[in-house]
């Protein structure tokens, strides 16, 4: 089963401008920042500002909701697949964790996420 939201990713084309907006305009704490990824604490919910190589207005995209499974990511992919969910890619491993992307019933981008082990 899904055990809450791990993070919400928001695509941005200008990281400095986006960090300024979330920090200065909205008054949220920016807890991490670099050219490709910044994190904002939205009262306990992590907003990830995710730089895109090219962002064109009206080209799709949008926030990505990352769900943290309460079991292994592999088990949750199998469970969701049995429930009829189509994954848009396999499980991928990164230094910052593992993800498995899929879409909701409306075509919105979602993913399972687990932090790095160890």
TrEMBL record:
Transmembrane stretches, start-end: none
Q: List residues of the VOC domain.
A: 1-115
- Name the source's superkingdom: Bacteria
Q: Which InterPro entries did the record assign?
A: Anthracycline_SecMetBiosynth, Glyas_Bleomycin-R_OHBP_Dase, Glyas_Fos-R_dOase_dom, VOC_core
- Classification via Pfam families: Glyoxalase
Which PANTHER family does this one have?
GLYOXALASE-RELATED
Protein name according to UniProt? VOC family protein
Ranked from the top, the taxonomy reads: Bacteria, Bacillati, Actinomycetota, Actinomycetes, Micrococcales
